[in-house]
Amino acid sequence: MISLSGYHYTLGNILAVIFGFGLLIFVHELGHFLMAKKFKVKVEEFAFGFGLKIFGFKYGETLYSLRAIPFGGMVKMPGEDIDSATGSADEFLSQPWYKKLLIALFGPLMNYLLAVLLFAGLFITVGVPRPSSRPVIGEVLAEKPAARAGLKNGDEIVQINRVPVDSWESVVRIIHNLAEKNVELTVRRQQVLYNFKLKTIRDPVSGYGLIGITPLIVEEKLPAFKALIGGFNAAVFQSVFTIQYLVNKIRTRTTPEIAGPIGVVSVLAKAARSSLADIVYVLGVISTALGLFNLFPIPLLDGGHILLSLLEGIIRRPLDKKMVRLANLLGLSIIIGIFLFATYSDIMRLIFGVNKIGQ
Q1: Mind telling me the catalytic residues?
Q2: Exposure winner among 74, 312, 315, 331, fewest CB in 10 A?
Q3: What is the pTM of this model?
């Protein structure tokens, strides 16, 4: 067992993190690999991990290898760099603009596909959280009338002011119409009926009466097709939420909270201590984030290759080498800056425990 930042991790937790992180990178690189093979672009090496090569074998023209550090991957194609390109027909940069675009695009798309499948798998096996229609209290909010009166999570409301209720909708309708009024609730708790008297409060925005309770949340399992639609919607929601968050930070000129490799591993490790469902959900979120980040139009990222390919398609000729070199240098500077900032944030969270992601 290993202790880190106040948490204890077993060997199983560690292996789950390695497998999960490796899966995200492998799927991403697999997208590039499959499209490169489809377009007859030579793939010199398809590596899982980076650093020292542990072992590998060659099949056809490609070396398939496993490297020591499992937090990465690589699809090595000749002619990826403008200075090393010779113009050979099997090189990456020798391909038409649309082929280069698709080779770059399929890495992030595979991450999105994986995220959809992970979310869909959860919706099929665990279910989608839904508020129950039963008049059962899911949570009693602290310092609200219900809490002060003694109501508890799991209480089933059977009467309000001696009027029977049979659904959460009826509970809401009655309470909303009784702002700042005395009410009497009859609830069933472990097959015993109890009466509670309390006074509602008025919501300052809507004017509705409130007592500080939320409905019971239940998991509704979905059939396969609906689960896939739900998985797609979940991936879209995560992407839109992230973009809106970043735009808001730029607009307000405040520093965004982002996680680097250390932070991502930390979040996965905490999920691994909880349950398989939590691991799958976190992997879906991270896979979506990985796909989205790689679509940003930053040179050297997949999004940068996509942007340059589109420009080449628009002007109908190869881009100026000097411009490409300058764009790549700018992209490298941006990527290094993001990596250093994210790593610094990760270390600060580990050392001081501030703004912990995933808690």
Answers
A1: 29
A2: 315
A3: 0.76
